[in-house]
Amino acid sequence: MKFKVCPQCGSENIEWIIPQNWSQWSCNDCSYTGLVIEVDKETQKEIQKQWKETGRIISSKDDEEDD
Ligand SMILES: [Zn+2]
Hints:
- The protein has one helix at residues 41-54, and strands spanning 3-5, 14-16, 25-27, 33-34, 37-39.
- By secondary structure, it is α+β, with helices and mostly antiparallel strands.
- The strands form two sheets. It has a three-stranded antiparallel β-sheet, with no helix packed on it.
- A hairpin with an 8-residue loop joins β2 and β3.
- The longest helix is centred in the C-terminal third of the chain and has 14 residues, at 41-54.
């Protein structure tokens, strides 16, 4: 059985923040926003393991400032 998790840290602690936009989710554990993925328990464990080992955001190092 698959369920939605944060692709970055593997957390299920995610929220659908914009009802009009299905692709915008927010993770309460790592502050990720964007698409979530559907995984099974094993894949989730892999993501969580990776996240613990690297502990960093893969996509971008640069901070974007919103004015
Ligand atoms: Zn996360």
